[in-house]
Design goal:
single chain, coiled coil, Regulatory protein
């Protein structure tokens, strides 16, 4: 009889441990995704700076273009071939790398005078009556701006930027994240 009592207890203990491990795993995945997004944004900024500096160098008649090409070849050589091929394989399976490449391309091809992703997302959400997910905002922006390559990753980054700047609020319902504009409280006049 004591074995019957201990089996449910052991099963419950294992179930609790598995649930805790699963929760920790998901938390770590989210942390790594956030860090990856931050690093991707930083890489985009650095590449844009490189383009500007290269153009300035060309205008000023500085060092030949070969120097810039040598810098790129060093970047490729820094990653061993085995890791590069594994990265391509993993990216092909997940599609995340392709999305980030498209996000980088769409972010770096913004024409002067075009609204930023932050401006587009906050404007869209300000016209909504209820919170929206990043996927819903992306779908709406795709319809509203067919000339721009809308990527969910870019929209999510813009939404998180809006949260960081206090323009938007983030709310969670289960595992889903929704965004809405910050509710402004009207200032009442005291007589």
């Amino acid at each position: 009889m004591s074995t019957n009592l201990s089996v449910p207890s052991v099963t419950a203990d294992y179930a609790l441990r598995v649930a805790d491990d699963l929760s920790a795993n998901r938390g770590e995945q989210e942390r790594v995704r956030s860090e990856l997004d931050r690093l991707q944004d930083e890489l985009i900024r650095l590449e844009e700076s490189e383009q500007v500096l290269t153009k300035m160098q060309d205008v000023l008649g500085g060092a030949p273009k070969q120097t810039a090409k040598q810098g790129k070849s060093r970047k490729t050589a820094a990653v061993p071939a085995a890791r590069r091929s594994n990265t391509k394989t993993a990216a092909g399976k997940s599609g995340a790398a392709d999305g980030r490449k498209a996000a980088k391309k769409s972010a770096s091809t913004k024409k002067p005078g075009e609204a930023t992703w932050l401006e587009l997302t906050t404007a869209h959400l300000s016209g909504q009556s209820e919170p929206r997910s990043a996927a819903e905002v992306s779908a709406s922006l795709t319809e509203a701006h067919p000339e721009r390559a809308v990527q969910v990753t870019v929209v999510r980054n813009a939404l998180e930027q809006g949260v960081a700047q206090g323009l938007l609020e983030r709310s969670k319902q289960g595992r889903s994240v929704f965004y809405s504009p910050v509710a402004t409280v009207p200032v009442s006049s005291v007589s």
